[in-house]
Amino acid sequence: MNGFIQTLKNIWSLKELREKILFTLGIILVYRFSTYISLPAINLAEVGDLLEHYKSQGGNKQGAGLLGLLSSFTGGAFANASIMALGIMPYISASIIVQLMGMAIPYLQKLQKDGESGRNTLNQITRWLTIAVCLVQAPSYLTSITQMFLPYSQFQSAYYIEPSQFMFWFPSIVLLVAGSVFAMWLGEKITDKGIGNGISILIMVGILAGLPQAFVQEYVTQTGAAGAGTIVILIEVIFWMVVILLGILLSVAVRKIPIQYVSRAQARGGVTKNLMDGARQWIPLKVNAAGVMPIIFAQALMFLPGLLTKVDSTNTFLGGFKNVFSWQYNLLFALLIIIFTFFYTAITIPVNQMADDLKRNGGLIPKVRPGKDTSDYLDDILSKITLPGSIFLAIFAILPALVFGWLVQTEGFALFFGGTSLLIMVGVILDTIQQINTYLLNHHYDGLMQSKLSRTSNPQ
């Protein structure tokens, strides 16, 4: 505990790091306040009651689970009809599209290799594509909320303007697009002037915003007349901590491939002698090299069956895809995650380039020939570790459905037991901690250098 307090003091003592953290917290506050600004055509006071009524309908409970999942990524803005309802997800979608298009379009491939100028151009393309995605998603969002809520005549006062009018659609679409672009701008400001990856931090903040309410609802349910008591809450918290630990292990687990480098050839007494580096080095191949991207890809496709099915279709096979806790939803979800894990790993881990770089720099894997044999060896190892990694990732993603009902009694709290939400939180927190540690280590290194220089310049 003393070490933790001392670390906090060290962080606060660094002016640059302190300013970055305070700047990041300020941007997060702006983002959270923005999520409570509703669309001008929506009566926010009625939306909460309308959602509760919608969720309470037995025939519509499946749709509510899908709605809750969508809302969790925007900190409730999606369900509250906020100007930030689309959140940062259009930017994520645009980034994925640009990344996939980079495999097929030579111009984008050239930009990826052009260094800083190429990255700036790719970022600009991603921003414009984000606006295009918003122009598609905004009308879809407005259509979904009008179709969900208009059938209930007792909630017609939820709209200040009739949803069929032009003055409902045009300003709402403009504000939804502007809100998403504003969220993108806030994320980029965090990346530039704050600490951590801004886009990821905003997603994590949106997810964490629903955690306190979800835990309170679970506590009330378990301690109520039909609940199992406080001891079950304790068991849930312990199990949740174990799940978080497993998520951390999944994020950091690597397979180390030993390599050796030939530093130089030196002639001594007419004999040429290869001098090897003293320390053996490694190629760290991550067990889950794809991160959360397979879950995001699969999640995007899993929305399609639910959107193609009517809201009140609850007793059909396709109706089950509206329920994120149904067996058919999670079976297909797990299969898609396994497939996308192999796909995304194959396109992001260039084993041929790794083998060429090793050969060019004088590196080699013991007992493996340089060149194609090294490439085949790396590809074989990557395939072997990706299979268990993809299976574990799939189990981790459907864990909320596995614990819901027999352990966790509320849908909101169950969504935090694995899935995209928990993996994003774990990944962002680990990345932010790593950046903070880097600042601390650099400061310590600079201090040692300054002390050394002062001793050199002032000899006794």
From TrEMBL:
It comes from the Bacteria. It is a multi-pass membrane protein. GO terms for biological process: intracellular protein transmembrane transport; protein targeting; protein transport by the Sec complex. PANTHER family: SECY/SEC61-ALPHA FAMILY MEMBER. Component of the Sec protein translocase complex. Heterotrimer consisting of SecY, SecE and SecG subunits. The heterotrimers can form oligomers, although 1 heterotrimer is thought to be able to translocate proteins. Interacts with the ribosome. Interacts with SecDF, and other proteins may be involved. Interacts with SecA. PROSITE patterns: SECY_1, SECY_2. InterPro entries: SecY, SecY/SEC61-alpha, SecY_CS, SecY_dom_sf. Belongs to the SecY/SEC61-alpha family. It is found in: Cell membrane; Membrane. This is Protein translocase subunit SecY. Its main location: membrane. One of its GO terms (cellular component) is plasma membrane. The central subunit of the protein translocation channel SecYEG. Consists of two halves formed by TMs 1-5 and 6-10. These two domains form a lateral gate at the front which open onto the bilayer between TMs 2 and 7, and are clamped together by SecE at the back. The channel is closed by both a pore ring composed of hydrophobic SecY resides and a short helix (helix 2A) on the extracellular side of the membrane which forms a plug. The plug probably moves laterally to allow the channel to open. The ring and the pore may move independently. SUPFAM superfamilies: Preprotein translocase SecY subunit. The chain crosses the membrane at residues 21-42, 88-108, 128-146, 166-186, 198-216, 228-254, 287-307, 327-351, 385-407, 413-433. Keywords: Cell membrane, Membrane, Protein transport, Translocation, Transmembrane, Transmembrane helix, Transport. It comes from Frigoriflavimonas asaccharolytica. The keyword Protein transport applies.
